[in-house]
Amino acid sequence: MWRTIKLALFLISLLVLNSSAGAETKKEYLVFSQSTAAQETTIYLAALDDLQVYPIVVVAGSQIEVYQVAGHLLYFSHKRLYEFDVKQKKATPFPRFKGEKILIQTLPGQRDQALLIAEDSYSYYWYIIDFQDHSIRRITNHYQNAGGGRIIVNQKQGRSPDGRYQRLLRPVFLTGYYQLAIRVHVAGRWNLQWTSPPELAVLAAGSFWAPDSQKVAFYACDRRRYQSYYSLYIYDLQEEQLQLVHEAVFAKASFQKATGAESAPSWSTDSRFLVYQTQPYGAPIASKLVKFDLLKKEKKILTESPGANCFPQWVEKNKKIIFRSNRRKAKYQL
Questions:
Q1: Taking a C-beta distance cutoff of 8 angstroms, is the pair 117, 126 a contact?
Q2: pTM over 0.70
Q3: Cβ-based neighbours of 35, under 8 Å, separated by 6 or more
Q4: Which of 29, 51, 215, 283 has the fewest CB within 10 Å, making it most exposed?
């Protein structure tokens, strides 16, 4: 009996053998996982051209997280990180590290390394994943004093797609909240360009670069109004304007996972459209998928129903959107 389905927020391109031509061609797949009542999880590849679904590995347990980092397919199970080779159908474990929950971020221009942030009940741990020697090294110099609060400044973390900008988190002194700061790289130095207003409490894991590197979307709540909801904002670096896109997208209490994947907005490749999930009054009893047109400043509801409509992802050059939904059913579907 199937229990739940999880959509991993990425596509993966693989070389497959074309039997008629006798040559290898690239094929695009969506990666997702599905768990059963027997506490087993199957990770699948779904071909976007013919909608065929291929199981690639079965893992014990239901709390499995799947990642695609610089062309590497990874999954996290029972406090252990594995890399799965699709062609050889083989999973190789990485060395053990501290932490029960993890967040993995790519490093721009790096296919052989990635940043791993692990969390347990007491603290955070920072590591570098090296895919060449299959190692994980802990780093301790990821903090730097600035402006009365410590800023998270790992040199590669939070970089814009073009590498020119960097988004950082600045703790607001004695509040427990964060500000979003953006730096620009000029003449070999990082200069502070913009900081979010102090009245906005920015969600630590909720900021997302647009593909053109000129806009960043993020979630925040207004501390002056004692809001219990997170709202969606966009800051335009070129226009130097902050815009409230959608108020009360979801409730604070409903945001539990450190990665924020379920409510993460998805940018179109031309950076014009942003699609995201919103819950009426912030309550997780129903949801809508909304498309925001940055050029026309218009919002359009794409679909709505009781339950969840989450994990939106643009595919096929902005022609389609894949998402996860249960729509009055006990199990999720794509």
A1: yes
A2: no
A3: 2, 3, 4, 5, 6, 41, 42, 62, 64
A4: 51
